[in-house]
């Protein structure tokens, strides 16, 4: 491919979509062992050592079981998040100011939430142990959603898109904070003379950990809201918040129960994703500055 054609390809709208897909694909592969170990701990209440021994005894063939669904979901998430962010940033101004990056990040989070919300809804119902007998398969859940007789609006609001407003709030805030802060933080770390690959990794880790910690209680509320199925179970937002607060004993600290490992995993995942993304951006000749370019200087008067 000629250099001019390569530059045209790398500057096209499709570039950010495939770079985002590749970043999430490889970071999911890298963190899957941690994900599977944590899942065994949550399922069997075992220690890290016991969970690791279980996985070693099962062998490599069984170790890869369950990899495909999160790999596909995270790859799609990266495609949407990075691709739509770049598209919105271009539409706003393309100057990459702090306000433009934050606005484009919020809009990218909204887009991701609109597409992926039904998948998260089905997953939360499947993971609720109280509904195993009622909804043993994904098909049984979809059959329930499609049975709602109030028309398409009720099937979407009560079924597939239950809790959509909360998801848009979480994804919009998270993406807006991530995209507005990752590049400035990376640039500050670069000034300290760190190895070339380390600033992006640390920037992603710090941002991922901080944002996950901030939004974790909202995630708890979303999980509980989306686990509700049927008109009898469905609570209003205020009632759902009150129910979550009661089950956590009315203590803020208990809202974070079970969140420590998830927050740490999120930090590691976003660190790897950011590092891989920035590497691919630079490798393909599209390393854009994080700050808007300075205005042109007036020519000197002779």
From TrEMBL:
Q: Which PROSITE patterns match?
A: SOLCAR
Protein's name in the database: Solute carrier family 25 member 53
Q: Where are the transmembrane segments?
A: 163-181, 201-222
Which lineage ranks, top first, belong to the organism behind this chain?
Answer: Eukaryota, Metazoa, Chordata, Craniata, Vertebrata
Species per Swiss-Prot/TrEMBL record: Phrynosoma platyrhinos
Q: Which InterPro entries match?
A: MCP_dom_sf, MCP_transmembrane, Mito_NAD+_Carrier
Q: Gene3D superfamilies from the entry?
A: Mitochondrial carrier domain (1.50.40.10)
**What is the annotated localization of this protein?**
Mitochondrion inner membrane
Read off the Pfam families from this record: Mito_carr
Q: Does the keyword Repeat apply?
A: yes
Q: Where are the Solcar repeats?
A: 11-91, 96-188
Q: Which UniProt keywords apply?
A: Membrane, Mitochondrion, Mitochondrion inner membrane, Repeat, Transmembrane, Transmembrane helix, Transport
Q: Which residues form the signal peptide?
A: none
Lineage top rank: taxon: Eukaryota
- How is the protein disposed in the membrane? Multi-pass membrane protein
Question: Is Metal-binding one of the keywords UniProt gives this record?
Answer: no
The UniProt entry's sequence similarity note says: Belongs to the mitochondrial carrier (TC 2.A.29) family.
